[in-house]
Amino acid sequence: MDHPSDDTRRSTGTADGDQPAPRKLHTRGFDEVLALVLTRRAALAAGAGLLAAHEAGAARQPPAAAGPASPLGFVSVPAAGADRVVVPPGYRARVLYAWGDPIGASGLPAGEPAWRGDASEDAAAQALQAGMHHDGMHFFPLPARGADRGLLALNHEYVDHGLLFPDGSAGWSAAKVRKSQAAHGVSVIELGRGADGAWQVVRPSRHARRITANTPMRLSGPAAQALGGTATGTFANCANGWTPWGTYLTCEENWHGYFG
Question: Which of 159, 177, 198, 216 has the fewest CB atoms within 10 Å, counting from its CB?
Protein backbone atom coordinates (compact mmCIF):
# COMPACT_ATOMS: atom_id res chain seq x y z
CA MET A 1 0.00 0.00 0.00
CA ASP A 2 1.31 3.41 -0.93
CA HIS A 3 1.69 5.97 1.86
CA PRO A 4 1.27 9.67 1.22
CA SER A 5 4.43 11.69 1.10
CA ASP A 6 5.00 14.76 3.25
CA ASP A 7 4.15 16.90 0.23
CA THR A 8 0.88 15.04 -0.23
CA ARG A 9 -0.03 15.50 3.43
CA ARG A 10 0.58 19.21 3.15
CA SER A 11 -1.45 19.54 -0.03
CA THR A 12 -4.43 17.56 1.30
CA GLY A 13 -4.43 19.24 4.71
CA THR A 14 -4.05 16.00 6.71
CA ALA A 15 -1.61 15.32 9.49
CA ASP A 16 -1.11 11.57 8.98
CA GLY A 17 -3.04 10.62 5.87
CA ASP A 18 -6.15 9.64 7.86
CA GLN A 19 -7.07 12.40 10.30
CA PRO A 20 -7.81 15.97 9.21
CA ALA A 21 -5.34 18.55 10.42
CA PRO A 22 -6.59 20.49 13.43
CA ARG A 23 -8.34 23.74 12.60
CA LYS A 24 -7.17 27.00 14.02
CA LEU A 25 -9.83 28.46 16.29
CA HIS A 26 -10.34 32.18 16.53
CA THR A 27 -12.24 32.75 19.75
CA ARG A 28 -12.89 35.63 22.07
CA GLY A 29 -12.36 35.47 25.81
CA PHE A 30 -15.45 34.95 27.97
CA ASP A 31 -15.37 38.47 29.36
CA GLU A 32 -15.22 39.86 25.84
CA VAL A 33 -18.24 37.82 24.79
CA LEU A 34 -20.20 39.00 27.82
CA ALA A 35 -19.32 42.59 27.05
CA LEU A 36 -20.73 42.17 23.55
CA VAL A 37 -24.05 40.55 24.40
CA LEU A 38 -24.95 41.40 27.99
CA THR A 39 -25.76 44.47 29.98
CA ARG A 40 -26.27 44.51 33.69
CA ARG A 41 -30.02 45.04 33.29
CA ALA A 42 -30.43 42.19 30.81
CA ALA A 43 -28.35 39.84 32.93
CA LEU A 44 -30.44 40.49 36.03
CA ALA A 45 -33.71 40.10 34.13
CA ALA A 46 -32.60 36.84 32.54
CA GLY A 47 -31.45 35.48 35.89
CA ALA A 48 -34.81 35.82 37.60
CA GLY A 49 -34.73 32.21 38.75
CA LEU A 50 -31.32 32.46 40.41
CA LEU A 51 -31.04 32.38 44.17
CA ALA A 52 -28.82 35.45 44.37
CA ALA A 53 -31.16 38.46 44.06
CA HIS A 54 -30.12 42.09 44.01
CA GLU A 55 -30.97 44.03 47.13
CA ALA A 56 -30.30 47.75 47.34
CA GLY A 57 -28.80 48.60 50.69
CA ALA A 58 -28.09 45.00 51.68
CA ALA A 59 -25.24 44.36 54.10
CA ARG A 60 -21.89 44.49 52.34
CA GLN A 61 -19.30 41.74 52.42
CA PRO A 62 -15.75 42.53 53.58
CA PRO A 63 -13.88 44.02 50.59
CA ALA A 64 -10.65 42.08 51.23
CA ALA A 65 -9.37 40.12 48.24
CA ALA A 66 -12.35 41.09 46.09
CA GLY A 67 -11.70 40.91 42.39
CA PRO A 68 -12.13 43.62 39.75
CA ALA A 69 -15.49 44.62 38.36
CA SER A 70 -16.69 42.49 35.45
CA PRO A 71 -18.82 43.40 32.42
CA LEU A 72 -21.84 42.16 34.41
CA GLY A 73 -21.48 45.14 36.72
CA PHE A 74 -20.54 43.54 40.04
CA VAL A 75 -17.30 42.78 41.86
CA SER A 76 -16.13 39.17 41.78
CA VAL A 77 -15.98 37.39 45.13
CA PRO A 78 -12.84 35.85 46.63
CA ALA A 79 -12.47 32.11 47.09
CA ALA A 80 -14.03 30.95 50.36
CA GLY A 81 -14.14 27.66 52.26
CA ALA A 82 -17.09 28.52 54.48
CA ASP A 83 -20.26 26.43 54.24
CA ARG A 84 -22.37 29.30 52.94
CA VAL A 85 -23.21 31.09 49.71
CA VAL A 86 -20.89 34.04 49.10
CA VAL A 87 -22.28 36.87 46.97
CA PRO A 88 -20.87 40.23 45.80
CA PRO A 89 -21.42 43.46 47.73
CA GLY A 90 -24.98 44.72 47.31
CA TYR A 91 -26.46 41.24 46.83
CA ARG A 92 -27.94 38.64 49.12
CA ALA A 93 -28.76 34.93 48.72
CA ARG A 94 -31.77 33.07 50.04
CA VAL A 95 -33.42 29.71 49.41
CA LEU A 96 -36.28 29.92 46.94
CA TYR A 97 -37.28 26.29 46.33
CA ALA A 98 -35.63 23.43 48.23
CA TRP A 99 -36.03 19.67 48.07
CA GLY A 100 -39.31 18.74 49.77
CA ASP A 101 -40.97 22.13 49.34
CA PRO A 102 -44.55 21.80 48.06
CA ILE A 103 -45.00 22.79 44.44
CA GLY A 104 -48.30 24.52 45.21
CA ALA A 105 -50.55 22.21 43.23
CA SER A 106 -54.03 23.55 42.53
CA GLY A 107 -56.67 22.14 44.86
CA LEU A 108 -54.32 21.70 47.83
CA PRO A 109 -53.70 24.07 50.76
CA ALA A 110 -50.77 26.40 50.08
CA GLY A 111 -48.28 24.54 52.30
CA GLU A 112 -49.24 20.96 51.48
CA PRO A 113 -47.85 18.40 51.35
CA ALA A 114 -45.42 19.90 53.86
CA TRP A 115 -41.86 18.66 54.17
CA ARG A 116 -41.64 16.64 57.38
CA GLY A 117 -37.87 16.70 57.78
CA ASP A 118 -37.63 13.02 58.73
CA ALA A 119 -37.84 11.47 55.23
CA SER A 120 -41.14 9.80 56.11
CA GLU A 121 -43.08 11.09 53.08
CA ASP A 122 -44.28 8.44 50.65
CA ALA A 123 -44.04 8.50 46.85
CA ALA A 124 -47.39 10.27 46.46
CA ALA A 125 -46.26 13.16 48.68
CA GLN A 126 -42.83 13.37 47.03
CA ALA A 127 -44.53 13.64 43.63
CA LEU A 128 -46.12 16.91 44.82
CA GLN A 129 -42.90 18.29 46.32
CA ALA A 130 -39.61 19.55 44.92
CA GLY A 131 -37.39 16.73 43.72
CA MET A 132 -33.74 16.32 44.65
CA HIS A 133 -30.57 17.92 43.31
CA HIS A 134 -31.73 20.84 41.18
CA ASP A 135 -29.95 21.27 37.87
CA GLY A 136 -30.84 22.95 34.57
CA MET A 137 -33.68 25.47 34.69
CA HIS A 138 -35.41 28.19 32.67
CA PHE A 139 -37.76 31.04 33.56
CA PHE A 140 -40.77 31.69 31.31
CA PRO A 141 -42.49 35.06 31.94
CA LEU A 142 -46.27 34.78 31.93
CA PRO A 143 -47.97 36.78 29.16
CA ALA A 144 -49.25 40.23 30.15
CA ARG A 145 -47.46 40.05 33.50
CA GLY A 146 -44.05 41.36 32.48
CA ALA A 147 -40.99 39.94 34.20
CA ASP A 148 -42.52 39.91 37.70
CA ARG A 149 -44.53 36.71 37.26
CA GLY A 150 -43.65 33.53 35.44
CA LEU A 151 -43.03 29.81 35.45
CA LEU A 152 -39.74 28.20 36.45
CA ALA A 153 -39.06 24.81 34.87
CA LEU A 154 -36.38 23.01 36.88
CA ASN A 155 -34.57 19.68 36.51
CA HIS A 156 -34.00 17.19 39.36
CA GLU A 157 -30.97 15.18 38.33
CA TYR A 158 -30.47 12.42 40.90
CA VAL A 159 -31.27 11.42 44.48
CA ASP A 160 -29.39 10.82 47.72
CA HIS A 161 -30.94 7.72 49.26
CA GLY A 162 -29.27 8.43 52.59
CA LEU A 163 -31.46 11.52 52.89
CA LEU A 164 -34.51 10.35 50.97
CA PHE A 165 -35.29 7.42 53.31
CA PRO A 166 -35.10 7.10 57.11
CA ASP A 167 -33.04 3.91 56.76
CA GLY A 168 -31.06 4.97 53.69
CA SER A 169 -30.37 2.25 51.13
CA ALA A 170 -31.19 -0.63 53.47
CA GLY A 171 -34.18 -2.89 52.87
CA TRP A 172 -35.17 -1.98 49.34
CA SER A 173 -38.86 -2.28 48.54
CA ALA A 174 -41.25 -1.29 45.76
CA ALA A 175 -42.40 1.67 47.89
CA LYS A 176 -38.84 2.98 48.19
CA VAL A 177 -38.27 2.60 44.46
CA ARG A 178 -41.44 4.57 43.74
CA LYS A 179 -40.39 7.38 46.05
CA SER A 180 -36.94 7.50 44.47
CA GLN A 181 -38.58 7.74 41.04
CA ALA A 182 -40.82 10.55 42.30
CA ALA A 183 -37.79 12.56 43.45
CA HIS A 184 -36.38 12.60 39.89
CA GLY A 185 -37.66 14.55 36.92
CA VAL A 186 -38.82 18.14 36.52
CA SER A 187 -40.69 20.76 38.55
CA VAL A 188 -42.85 23.48 37.04
CA ILE A 189 -43.61 26.15 39.62
CA GLU A 190 -45.05 29.64 39.46
CA LEU A 191 -42.90 32.50 40.75
CA GLY A 192 -43.87 36.04 41.64
CA ARG A 193 -41.85 39.07 42.68
CA GLY A 194 -43.21 41.24 45.44
CA ALA A 195 -42.99 44.98 45.98
CA ASP A 196 -39.77 44.47 47.94
CA GLY A 197 -38.16 42.77 44.93
CA ALA A 198 -38.04 39.34 46.57
CA TRP A 199 -39.11 36.27 44.61
CA GLN A 200 -41.37 33.59 46.08
CA VAL A 201 -43.24 30.50 44.93
CA VAL A 202 -46.90 31.24 44.20
CA ARG A 203 -49.07 28.68 46.01
CA PRO A 204 -51.51 27.40 44.97
CA SER A 205 -51.05 27.71 41.21
CA ARG A 206 -52.95 26.05 38.39
CA HIS A 207 -49.65 25.84 36.50
CA ALA A 208 -47.73 23.93 39.19
CA ARG A 209 -46.84 20.34 38.38
CA ARG A 210 -44.21 17.64 38.78
CA ILE A 211 -42.95 15.35 36.02
CA THR A 212 -41.39 12.19 37.46
CA ALA A 213 -39.96 8.90 36.25
CA ASN A 214 -43.52 7.56 35.99
CA THR A 215 -45.36 10.46 34.35
CA PRO A 216 -47.11 9.42 31.11
CA MET A 217 -46.36 11.78 28.21
CA ARG A 218 -47.96 12.12 24.81
CA LEU A 219 -45.61 12.19 21.83
CA SER A 220 -46.52 14.35 18.85
CA GLY A 221 -44.98 15.70 15.67
CA PRO A 222 -43.32 14.04 12.66
CA ALA A 223 -40.50 12.46 14.66
CA ALA A 224 -42.95 10.71 16.98
CA GLN A 225 -44.70 8.63 14.33
CA ALA A 226 -42.21 5.76 14.49
CA LEU A 227 -42.10 5.74 18.30
CA GLY A 228 -45.74 5.29 19.21
CA GLY A 229 -48.09 7.65 20.94
CA THR A 230 -46.83 7.77 24.53
CA ALA A 231 -43.70 7.58 26.67
CA THR A 232 -43.31 7.08 30.40
CA GLY A 233 -41.31 9.37 32.62
CA THR A 234 -37.96 11.08 32.62
CA PHE A 235 -35.01 10.93 35.02
CA ALA A 236 -31.31 11.83 35.35
CA ASN A 237 -32.29 15.30 34.12
CA CYS A 238 -29.16 17.40 33.81
CA ALA A 239 -28.85 19.99 31.03
CA ASN A 240 -31.75 21.96 29.64
CA GLY A 241 -32.82 24.22 26.83
CA TRP A 242 -35.85 26.03 25.50
CA THR A 243 -37.45 26.66 22.15
CA PRO A 244 -38.37 29.93 20.42
CA TRP A 245 -42.04 28.94 20.74
CA GLY A 246 -41.84 28.72 24.54
CA THR A 247 -41.41 25.05 25.42
CA TYR A 248 -38.89 23.52 27.81
CA LEU A 249 -36.27 20.94 26.85
CA THR A 250 -34.87 18.62 29.53
CA CYS A 251 -31.89 16.39 28.82
CA GLU A 252 -31.14 13.03 30.44
CA GLU A 253 -27.66 11.72 31.24
CA ASN A 254 -26.27 8.50 32.72
CA TRP A 255 -29.64 6.87 32.07
CA HIS A 256 -27.99 3.47 31.47
CA GLY A 257 -27.22 3.25 35.20
CA TYR A 258 -30.93 3.00 36.04
CA PHE A 259 -31.60 -0.35 34.42
CA GLY A 260 -30.62 -3.69 35.95
Answer: 216
Please, are residues 160 and 169 in contact by the beta-carbon 8 Å criterion?
A: no
Do 45 and 86 form a contact (C-beta atoms < 8 A)? Answer: no
First to last CA, the chain: 47
State pTM to two decimals: 0.70
With beta carbons less than 8 A apart as the criterion, state whether 209 and 181 touch.
no
**Sequence-separated (6 or more) residues with CB below 8 Å from residue 216:** 230, 231, 232, 233
How far is residue 189's CA from residue 206's CA, in Å, rounded to a whole number? 9
- Residues facing 255 on adjacent strands: none
Cβ neighbour number for residue 82 with a 10 Å cutoff? 6
| Tens of pLDDT, residues 228-257 | 788 899 999 999 999 999 999 999 999 888
For residue 29, pLDDT beyond 70: no
- State pLDDT tens for residues 89-129: 888 899 999 999 999 999 999 899 999 999 999 999 999 99
- Amino acid present at 48: A
Model pLDDT for residues 68-84, shown as the tens digit of each residue: 656 777 888 888 888 98
